[in-house]
Amino acid sequence: MALKSYGVMKGRVIGSRPGTGPSPHYQINVVAGSTQYRVAVNVKSQLAPSELLYLVVENFQHPLTVGLSELSHGFSEVPRRPGGIALDFIRGNLFQRTQMRPLPYSVPGPDNDLNEKLNAYVQRAIDDEDATIYAFGERWGPENDQRDRYFGFLPGNGIHDIHMNQGNVGRFTEQDGVWQDGGLLLHFPAMIGSGGELLFPEQWVGVFLAFQSQAWHTDDVTGHRLTPEQPTGEEPDGRIRIVAAMVNPKGDDAGRERVTLLNTTPDTIDLKGWSIADKNKRKTILASQELSPGATALVMLSNEGAQLSNDGGIITLLDKQGLKIDGVSYTREQVARQGWTIVF
């Protein structure tokens, strides 16, 4: 069974508390209109190893930010499907998973644990009244007769599961699902000086967390980790990389969009049966083509398979077993110049 009520809470940060105790959560107090919420962020795993995988993307660029900006403040349920604003660490191409690093929630010294890393960005959002937080996860409340245990507001209200929510083990598999991962996005608008000069550009910051016990190849329907009966074999991620794409060619896009692949391995790889998928999961199946070590291949896309939207999108490479090998995203701004190739 997936999360009961998945969505995103949009608001302004007004307070925080570090995670402590046997099941520590970093707590964030958020206000949206006249309603207060608490965002409870796991900073320690109940399963070994206890350190969470952590990544901050300080210049987060992804087409989903357009839809987020259009949301009203408060909690919004989010459809769990591709092409929208739902998060999926595996299918949404939000980041490269190899960028994540394990981090303890509390250790002596400055700026070296998860509490402190989270606090740096949350405190910045508190200090900037124009900053906006978007917290993805599962909603709880309102608890009409119960004050919030950390910040004291009434009714109790909040959102948790601010982490990857698929590929779990044991009792946590009941929370598995696709297009329902948690995360934090913070938007800091541009700062303009009194003379009209740009003091600080607009910035989106993405904060992503996962448990080391979770799997990174999961079923496309249930979100369950692939079982021993569905072996993944040698770690496939990154063997072939998407290094460039022509998204907005001159003239009609049909038949002119193309994706450039690079073989990073020391072995020749046959791409027969592999596929390119777009943000709506339409696929272009690749014909037999042997790609030598260090060589590139140009994949031409037709109207019958994957299509690259000029409004922003994602491009995913799958092997013949359907396992994700690589994935990238691009924004509307990156394809504004017709005929130019995006380099990833």
UniProtKB/TrEMBL annotation:
Q: Which residues cross the membrane?
A: none
Q: By its UniProt entry, which InterPro entries does this protein fall under?
A: DUF2278 (IPR019268), Lamin_tail_dom (IPR001322), Lamin_tail_dom_sf (IPR036415)
**Annotated LTD domain residues:** 228-332
This protein is called what? Answer: LTD domain-containing protein
Source organism of this protein record: Candidatus Brocadia carolinensis
